[in-house]
Amino acid sequence: MTAVTDPSTEAGARHRSAYTWLTAFGIALIATSMAVLAVVFAATGSAQLGPAVTIVLVLVVVGVAAWRGSTWAKAVAIVVSLLLVLLFLPLVRGVTFPSSPLDFVPGLLLSVGVLLAAGGGVAAIRARRDLRLQPSLVERRIIQGVLATVLVAGTASTLVGLVSRTTVDPIEGDIAVDMLDFGFPDVIEAGVGDRLLVHNSDATIHDFAVAELGIDVLVLPGNDALIDLEGATPGTYVVYCTLHSVTSDPDPDSAGMATTLIVRG
């Protein structure tokens, strides 16, 4: 006897969440955050462009495989998303800088993408369904909600960045320090009591930090900051942008965004 299948049951099954769309969407958000980084690296001539592009391509492959529904691909999506959030923790920190769009938006995309990719991947494996013809109503609403939130947050971040931009009028004797292309001048020389006029020419946030002198000043994109060396002890110090360098490396040539500060007595 031939079994009779209830068409309404089949239709309902096709619309139950398999979470493959949600997993793939999370991977797409992560890939977008990496693509933004790649654009920044390309604009600044950074050697990190190649690795960033490679990560984007790998994510595209992982996302497509997860969407196609195989269990192993969903497991890979979970592992890759968690690994990337660990490797790019400074990028996640960008969500705390809403006035810097190129820090805030990629950080938001990465954070939300990891939550969706990892959470969706676990749910997809538990669901044990490989339905992918169309997203379920739940998945569709989550995806639409996330897209709307990212769009609104990104627009707001851009507006905040524009209205919060500040500059400082230099006075005679101020020493100009330009942070450009994720770098400082090769050497900064100043005397005790001098003032450094630090300008951030990049599109991302930087800071100017000298731990030994108790200096740690955040400088938003396009903004200026004054650093007073009054009371500083003469000597040679390493200046770091703690967001884009390895602060445990005492050699400014290999630490990333770092340079030497010479304070004369």
Record the SSE blueprint.
Elements: H1 7-15, H2 20-44, H3 49-68, H4 71-87, H5 89-92, H6 101-127, H7 137-163, E1 175-179, E2 187-191, E3 195-200, E4 206-210, E5 215-219, E6 224-228, E7 235-245, E8 256-264
Parallel strand pairs: 1-3, 2-8
Antiparallel strand pairs: 3-6, 4-5, 7-8
Descriptive account of the structure:
With 265 residues, this protein is of the alpha/beta class. The chain is 49% helix and 19% strand. A three-stranded mixed β-sheet has the order 1-3-6, with no helix packed on it. Strands 2-8-7 form a three-stranded mixed β-sheet, with no helix packed on it. A two-stranded antiparallel ribbon has the order 4-5. Strand 4 and strand 5 form a beta hairpin. Helix 3 runs antiparallel to helix 4, helix 4 runs antiparallel to helix 6 and helix 6 runs antiparallel to helix 7. The longest helix has 27 residues. The termini are far apart. The N terminus is likely disordered.
- Could you give the order of the helices and strands? HHHHHHHEEEEEEEE
Average pLDDT figure: 88
Q: So how many helices? A: 7
Shape: elongated
Span from first to last CA?
Answer: 99 Å
Quantity of strands, as a count: 8
Classify the beta-strand content into a percent band.
15-25%
Strand order of the largest sheet: 1-3-6
Q: Describe the sheet with the most strands.
A: 3 strands, mixed
In terms of per-residue confidence, which ranges show pLDDT below 50 for 5 or more consecutive residues? 1-16
Helix content: 40-55%
Nearest-angstrom radius of gyration? 24 Å
- The secondary-structure class comes to alpha/beta
